[in-house]
Amino acid sequence: MGKEEVKHPIYSNNVIEFVTVAAEYCSFLEKMEQYDEKQFVDKLTKLLPLLYLKASLLPDLVTLSVDDMPHCVTEEEYEYQRGQLLEKIGRYDEYLEVFNADMKYSDTPVVASISEDLTDIYQDLKDMVANFKSADLNIMNDAILNCKTNFKEFWGQKALNALRALHNALYSTMVEDDLSDEEETFDE
Fold first, then answer.
1. What is the pTM of this model?
2. Are the beta carbons of 78 and 84 closer than 8 angstroms?
3. Which residue stretches of the chain have pLDDT < 50?
4. Is residue 125 within 8 Å of 81, Cβ to Cβ?
């Protein structure tokens, strides 16, 4: 590695930690079948804030390459992942969106989807991780830059919205369901 590469912010702890958490998020979603509904939601309520924090600490970068970044997540993979999430989250998937720009013009509530939010985040992070693995400084730089831009403009808010809905499911709805299940057991 040349002296210039070592000093490049792409090799900073904040970037390496972000890429590590992003890879963990993607891996976790790809292995979600290993967890029951409550374990899955519990883990997500821990991963999303960490992901948000690490993304907010990314350094400011400038574009080094004029080429478009390759995308590794196909439309079919996106839909598969979204479907898997919808199946896992099930009845907790929909929530009322309060930060949608269209909300101020709407007489009816805007409904959002945790599975769609999480898949949108997954798509951006999976693309970034795949590009980061190239070990090409320009591609790595631009992958982080694109991801940080998308975080600010798009998926950062989705992460917070999904977290809010997941928090409600985990600490309100699922707890009530567990209590109802226990009451049914005692009644029998």
1. 0.85
2. no
3. 179, 185-187
4. no
Which backbone phi and psi does 176 adopt, to 5 degrees? -60, -40
Tell which CATH architecture fits domain 3-91+114-160.
Up-down Bundle (1.20)
pLDDT at position 65 is 84
128 secondary structure, DSSP code: H
Return d(Cα 129, Cα 125) in angstroms, integer. 6
| Pairing relationship of beta strands 110-113 and 94-97 according to DSSP bridges | antiparallel
At position 146, the amino acid (one-letter code) is: N
Tokens for 25, please give them: 């998020």
Side chain identity at 48, as an amino acid letter?
A: L
b/e per residue, 139-161, with b = 16+ CB within 10 A? bbbbbbbbbbebbeeebbbbbeb
Identity of the amino acid at 155? W
H/E stretch holding 94: strand 94-97
Token code pair at residue 103: 């909300």
